[in-house]
Amino acid sequence: MEKKANTIGIVGLSFGDEGKGKITDYLAQNADIVVRFQGGNNAGHTVVHNDNTFKFHIMPSGAVLEKEVIIGNGCVVDPKVLLDEIENLEIGGKKVNLKLSSTAHVIFPFHRDVDGLEEKFKGEYKAGTTKRGIGPTYSDKAARFGLRLYDLIHPNLLKKKLENLYEINKKIIHCYDPTWNKELDKIYEEYKDYGVKLKKYVIDTAYYLNKQIDSGKKVIFEGAQGTLLGIDHGFYPFGTSSNANATGISNGTGVPSNKIGPILGIIKAYTSRVGEGAVPSELENEIGDQIREQGHEYGTTTGRPRRVGWLDLFNIKYSVMINGVKDIAVMLLDALEGIDPLKICIGYEFEGEILESWPIQPEIVEKCRPVYKNFKGWDKRSREEWSSIANNGYDALPNEMKVYLDAVKEYLDVDIAIISIGPEREDTIILKEIF
Ligand code: IMP
């Protein structure tokens, strides 16, 4: 038996919404600390616990289990959203054990406005963002006039730096909308109050986390979004503004890469996509509608119906490479029930040639034709039947599903560590104990 790891990275291998939250929630039972390392409240995750439903956008999964949770420096934080999530947990009777990186950047109301306005003017290059101000906040960070949580909790710094940030953003917004008028004083007063409330959580999380890992604490690094939405190795410009893959963990936490791993890659049994950009295996037909309904493919953050398609192992293979993934979890297999045949995309044809690897450039992807392999589908079952199958483990899975999973494993050259065939924690089958 392999030695179980002390830390693990959980990353999505597609376009987000792969079910990372469910797996984090599952593995968090064995963890001491759960850390978010990138993104902001563009992510969405619902956890049902003892009849209470908790909806998170920025809070790391693990908070429901009252684990220690950390928001790392690679994240962008909307203080109001975070305070609401803290309050909801407390109302639900949960003790919040949270630490925030003093160097994570702060989302302001004008960032949300810039997000919406810029999207309008991006034309065919719009990403279909969540309009939560994510991109503009990371832009200001990179341009070096953004505010960090350290600034937020020090009113003098907040006042001085906010004036500067406000003026720059006002100038940008006025290019698009000269009537825009949000008062600086009001924003300052509101954010000063947030700073007072959040102050007790803010520390140097890089130092703290390294110390905890060195002392043997078990830590989960929880990715948001997915590898193919990442800024450097994703489907730019149709993705998000942070590194949603394993390379982002070290950057986004200050924990060196030799203390991180293994990386568990999460995929769904099919493709889903929120937002814009070509999806070669997209199903804009009744089968797509059926998968959307059976998989409840509606955004947690925006409520938008997600685009769905056949499983695309060709782009996932690229993500496996970027993340150094050796183990994966396959989620939502039950959502493909009653569909026959099933198809898996195993390559792209571009201008008459079969490509060697996922081409990353949207201009090429949009001209690619997916190459499929057909698989026999499995029958519909009731929720109780799926739960009973999960209870009885891998051997109880329908044979057709085993063939489908074997093909995934072989094509990606990975082990399947976890299978999920339903929304509950108990609907998870563990094939390999890695954490
Ligand atoms: P942003 O992160 O709000 O700037 O959005 C950029 C792109 O990433 C858009 O296509 C969004 O739909 C997508 N996106 C952002 N967060 C998520 C997520 O958590 N799941 C799926 N898609 C996401």
Molecular structure report:
The chain has 14 helices and 20 strands. With 435 residues, the protein is an alpha/beta fold. Helix 3 crosses helix 4, helix 3 (109-121) packs parallel to helix 6 and helix 6 (155-176) packs across helix 7 (184-198). It starts with 6 loop residues before the first strand and ends in a 5-residue tail after the last strand. The strands form 5 sheets. A 10-stranded mixed sheet has the order 9-7-5-2-10-1-11-15-19-20, sandwiched between helices. Strands 14, 16, 17 and 18 form a 4-stranded mixed sheet that branches. A two-stranded antiparallel ribbon has the order 3-4. It is globular and about 65 Å long. A hairpin with a 7-residue loop joins strand 19 and strand 20. Helix content is 34%, strand content 20%. It folds into 2 domains: 7-101 and 204-430, Adenylosuccinate Synthetase, subunit A, domain 1 (Adenylosuccinate Synthetase, Chain A, domain 1, 3-Layer(aba) Sandwich); 105-200, Adenylosuccinate Synthetase, subunit A, domain 2. Inosinic acid is lined by residues 15-17, 42-44, 127-130, 132, 134-135, 224-225, 229, 238-241, 274-275. Inosinic acid binds next to helix 4.
Find the structural class using helix and strand composition. Answer: alpha/beta
- CATH hierarchy: architecture of the largest domain: 3-Layer(aba) Sandwich
Spatial strand sequence of the major β-sheet: 9-7-5-2-10-1-11-15-19-20
Distance between the terminal alpha carbons, to the nearest Å?
12 Å
Q: What do the pLDDT scores average to?
A: 96
Total beta-strand segments: 20
Briefly, what CATH class of the largest domain?
Alpha Beta
CATH fold group of the largest domain: Adenylosuccinate Synthetase, Chain A, domain 1
Q: Helix count, per DSSP?
A: 14
What's the helical proportion of residues? 25-40%
Identify the CATH homologous superfamily of the largest domain: Adenylosuccinate Synthetase, subunit A, domain 1
Quote the beta fraction.
15-25%
Give the CA-based shape.
globular
Q: How many distinct folded domains?
A: 2
Weakly predicted, low-confidence segments: none
- Ligands in the structure? inosinic acid
Largest beta-sheet details: 10 strands, mixed
Nearest-angstrom radius of gyration? 22 Å
